[in-house]
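Retro notes, item 3 of 5
We never archived the inputs for the zinc ion complex last cycle. Fixing that now. Sequence and ligand:
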Amino acid sequence: MSFIYQPRSNAELEQIAEIILGRYARRRSGHFVDIEAIIEDAEITPIPRRGGLHKFVNGYAATNPKYIVISESFASYPERYRSILAEEFCHIVLEYEIFKTGILPIDAQPHNLTFDQHQQIEHDAQYLARAVLIPKDSLIPLWREHFENAPAGVRHAEDCRLIHCAESLESFFVVWPLTIAYRARDVDLITDGQCRSYFSDRLAI
Ligand SMILES: [Zn+2]
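Structure as it came back at the time:
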């Protein structure tokens, strides 16, 4: 079955994130978004898989969109596990537009994506996953507060101060500092250049 994926703008992805966060508001406690519970509410089931799957892919939406297959080896690293689950969930959300209804249509069929469509949806799913796991209304005040109150030891240099912010916020969102840095870039707390030279070129994923 052919399927055309219509790429979304960042503004549209932010709106979709708002809809998801609003619909599953009870799954958010403080700054923490319980993505596993949201996935359960959406009637999608993660299936842990053993073996060397993670050498090839982190996770993937199975042929049947009611399932997310994820390598069992990530389950002991909540920061990693949550990001992968969120991204796979967002693939399904975007492809099946379940932000409109909250649940997958009963007759949802697998989509065949061309390489280009896959690239587009990949970018959008990653963006949306960050927007859901690290809500803007939590991140912006927390980031500013940690920037302002950075300890003397890290104030001397911009890179140390920004890395301090990303690392301090890990425990609020339970995602890796690099993901927080990308999200800080998405919402203009840091520039593209700062994100590249202080984070993506330095921190291992
Ligand atoms: Zn993906």
